[in-house]
Amino acid sequence: MTNHEFYMDLAIKNAQAMKGQTDPNPLVGSVIVTENRIVGVGAHLKTGEPHAEIHAIRMAGENARGGTIYVTLEPCSHHGRTGPCAVAIVEAGITKVIIATLDPNPVVSGNGVKILEEAGIEVIVGVLEESSKKMNEVFNKFIVKKTPFVTLKAGITLDGKIATHSSNSKWITSEEARHDVHQLRNEHMAILVGVNTVIADNPELTTRIANGRNPVRIILDSTLKIPLDRKVITDKLADTWIFTSENFDIEKKSLLESMSISVFPTSGSKQVNPKEVMRILGEKGISSLLIEGGGTINAAFLENKLIDKAIIYIAPKLIGGQQAPTFLEGSGIDKMADAVDLLDADIIKIGKDFKFVGYPSYT
Ligand code: AOF
Ligand code: ZN
């Protein structure tokens, strides 16, 4: 590891520690080094609060002068809720800026580097670039496409089932894997299931870890048949937004709204239109969505090429049975050549189970 990589790695670790608390803003970390000594460290903690570089510069004070700043993302050039960091770096008298990756935000991209270079500062871009990009996969999509980064989560048996033929599913995966799912919920702004899951399981869809943050609960319900006694309607532990089709029950909509539940009609006579769900969530500032649906919802999102990442917990168990549901139903494909490949695939062991992560590639 070079010196540059060492300090950038430290900046990345600082940034990563804030996972789940900065969105819709990115994770960003920064380290200032003057004469081989770390004089400032900073991370972006929360949208609306100072950026990583500002914390590091404040910590360094006069020691920043003549120093090198490491930043995991190109310093910003705009006046947003804060900023611009590039100007603050110039004013602090820093003489060298090492950046992991450019900011994909169109209002910044390249402009931060320009401000620095025009002030005579030496700029290097690309140190630990891949790690920094991966850390901000959610932000990188959302800031450009304005729709959420979608992660499909499923807990399955080795034969792909999510329940027995009599709908028994407690539990497929081990406690350790289920704890990991709560970590995932904590990191996402919204979680999505279908109304049939709400009817069958009466789930809370909250984050059960210390200081956990509850995502907004998104329910797809084409007719608004959701029973009013379900926890997602009554418990008020998190917001619940219901997306429906053109054929919803108008009186039920008013009733739900009187209970502080938001209802969003979408086009589509039989089913909720998933692309419209994505557009509306984007407009509402939801940058990350965790889908914990059953096989029909999972297939609808996959067939519309809306899944960005798949996280599948595989329990080394076998259920069998043609009527036992799998995590991907729908009509499926005809030819193997049309199968969705999951790229960058990785697998780790969690308790007795395996956690598979991969990124669907669509043609
Ligand atoms: C940086 N350092 O630590 C972060 C940056 O609304 P604002 O003012 O917080 O600006 C948000 C935008 O600034 C965000 O979309 C991204 O382009 C950049 N984030 N930039 O120099 C940081 N968090
Ligand atoms: Zn900034």
What does this structure look like?
29% of the residues lie in helices and 24% in strands. By secondary structure, it is α/β, with parallel strands linked by helices. The chain folds into two domains: 4-137, Cytidine Deaminase, domain 2 (3-Layer(aba) Sandwich); 146-360, Dihydrofolate Reductase, subunit A. A nine-stranded mixed β-sheet has the order 10-9-8-7-11-6-12-14-13. Strands 2-1-3-4-5 form a five-stranded mixed β-sheet, with helices on both faces. Helix 9 links the parallel strand 8 (216-220) and strand 9. Helix 3 packs parallel to helix 4. It starts with a helix and ends with a strand. The mean pLDDT is 96. The structure holds ligand AOF and zinc ion. The site of zinc ion has 5 residues, from loops. Pfam families: dCMP_cyt_deam_1, RibD_C. Its EC number is 3.5.4.26, 1.1.1.193. Zn(2+) binds at residues 51, 76, 85. Residues 2-123 form the CMP/dCMP-type deaminase domain. The active site is at 53 (proton donor).
